Amino acid sequence: MPSPYRAIFAAPGTRAFSAAGLLGRMPLSMMGIGVVTMVSQLTGRYGLAGALSATLAMAAAVMGPQVSRLVDRYGQRRVLRPVTLFAAASVAGLLVCAQQRFPDWTLFVFAAGAGCVPSVGSMVRARWAEIYRGSGRQLHTAYSWESIVDEVCFIFGPIVSIGLSTAWFPEAGPLLAGGFLVVGVFWLTAQRATEPRPHPEEHSTGGSALRSPGLQVLVLTFVATGAIFGAVDVVT
Questions:
Q1: Which H/E stretch holds residue 108?
Q2: pLDDT, average across residues 9-32
Q3: Between 20 and 136, where is the model more confident?
């Protein structure tokens, strides 16, 4: 019996954007714990390390939906590339400030900038939705595959980040995470054939999606889930 996952990859371009999405979302599990490991090693201050990790997470929570809204209007390539370069430059600034022992406030500024990363998983799922729109079974299988990819990132990302920062040099984990982000996003956005078409503002119905009761329940659920993931990383 053929695998349902093999069937979804029969469409042209699916293997390439799925691989790019895997690289691009690795920083999601690597950056926060990498910053904790780096700062605690360089300064011995776990409070500062945890506060910087929290700043990263809060910046991503605030800016992620705004970036996605711009992607809806102008397309993935036009928005994701400059946003990614800004986030990568902020990561570089954070590493330099930490290594050179600059004042704490500079670390928080660059941590907030580093948190302005695009939701690469959402961009990949949008491509699956564009390809299999109207085919509920295949789209469900594609989303199941994306859940597997997410789990792989969260299993191996922290191990790689902590391992590099402790065995090589403190900045290695966040540095590699930034590299994954740049390579993954630029590889993904180079694939124009599977990029969903943008939806200009004049075609928008207006209003916030957060007004939906169903979405409000999901937001509360995933806030709790995120708190668990973040707490486990930092406490470990």
A1: helix 104-114
A2: 89
A3: 20
- Stretch 174-185: mean pLDDT, rounded? 93
Category of 221 on φ-ψ map: left (φ > 0), alpha (ψ -120 to 50) or beta: alpha
What is the architecture, at CATH level 2, of domain 13-197? Up-down Bundle (1.20)
CB neighbours of residue 76 within 10 Å: 26
Contacting residues for 28 by C-beta, under 8 A, at least 6 apart: 117, 120, 121, 153, 154, 157
Q: Which long-range contacts (CB under 8 A, 24 or more apart) does 134-139 make?
A: 138/4, 138/7, 138/8
CA nearest to 84, candidates 72, 61, 67, 70: 67
* pLDDT, tens digit (0-9, with 9 covering 90-100), for 25-50: 998 888 988 999 999 898 888 889 88
| Average of per-residue pLDDT across 97-126 | 90
Identify whether the C-beta of residue 37 lies closer than 8 Å to the C-beta of residue 93.
Answer: no
- Tell which residue, 129, 23, 124, 119, has the closest CA to residue 67: 119
Give the start-to-end residue ranges of the domains of the chain.
Answer: 13-197
Give percent above pLDDT 70 in the chain: 94
